[in-house]
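Ticket reopened. Same input as before:
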Amino acid sequence: MTIQTDKSSSYAEPGIDGMVSDWSADKQNFDLPWGKLMMWIFLLSDTFIFSVFLTGYMNVRLSQTDNWPNASEVFALEIGGVHLPLILIAIMTFVLITSSGTMAMAVNCAYNRDRRKTVLLMALTALLGASFVSMQVFEWSKLISEGVRPWGNPFGAAQFGSAFFMITGFHGLHVTAGVIYLIVIARRVSRGYYEDKGYAIVEITGLYWHFVDLVWVFIFAFFYLW
Amino acid sequence: MSETAGQQHPIGIYLKIWALLFVLSTFSYLVDFFHVQGYMRWTLILIFMFLKAGFIIAIFMHVAWERLALKYVLFVPLCAVAVLITLMAIEGDYTFLTRETFFDP
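Engineering reply: fixed in the latest deploy. New output:
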């Protein structure tokens, strides 16, 4: 294996050889914008946080001897006189997926240096994210008014409340932070702040946003559907 | 920062994945809507969840086109999570059995 001196040659070595040279390079470990690599490292640590939350939820749910509340009914809504199970959560899922789609397109527009479209798509993503958080606020206030507390609830096992508030609360916090992050970056893009630096930042912001969507996929499956 | 490392892919693929995620989400909602129960429910939920997660990671987050070195950084540490889940499942089961034995349910 040859020692790499020219950074641009790094992509010439795919597979295992490329990995070995990436890991053993003494000047730069990965041929990525550093911000992107750091975002990945952050997301990896965030993966551990959410994994631990969901594992904790699994543990309390396995070990409780009461009845676990039926999420399908707890989160049901009456719309126009029709009883729909879990409908709000389904709508929230679709909103978040849509926001992920607009974000992916924003990344594409940014690399094509189409600033107007990038800002528009990022603003749309932020708007969808904000509506997701609003629906979550509605859901929280509905459950609180029905008497769900972190230490107990009228539907069954007391652990339901603590797992619910902890997991969805932490996820909602991530969405809120993401909306703020998107607005800050979109504002800078619109001012031409990245014209010289390049638009890797939009891809990095996108990584964070898709991660928030990704976490929701797991919460939706394990907390609401299971 | 070099612009060369940026990920550029046609918008069409994003739209296709978007539509696919919509369909998969609808399917997982229908699992609940039609009251599928037991092992069938859990299997379907997991299949749809892993498909959705896979498409988001591979296409939206561009991991499918990233270097092998980054893939290893991202996926090897997750083995620790798998170990934790296994241990906690065993522990949760044990706590449940202990509670059933020593407390009136």
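Residues 1-66 of chain B form one domain. The two ends of chain B are 61 Å apart (CA to CA). Please confirm and we'll close it.
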